[in-house]
Amino acid sequence: MIQNKQLDNMYEQAKIVAYMYNENQKNKGKKQEYISAASLHASGILHLLYQTVVSEYLNERNAHFFTQLSGQIEKHHLIKKSAHFL
Known about the structure:
Layout: H1 4-27, H2 37-60, H3 65-85
């Protein structure tokens, strides 16, 4: 479960990264390419949410999802390769 302290720490990290990135962009003269700490923080929260949902799905419903998917992807690529040679 995501804790408030974890979210606070993520926001502090986002502020540092945004500041460093924006300073770098400013030094390069690229003033329109700034990023906000809030945008980075929101992206991080969405990532955590996605990660939590996928993890819960895998734990509760389909623990072998990625194993099965890997096999299907490999099979698809082999079929594509074979068709290319025909």
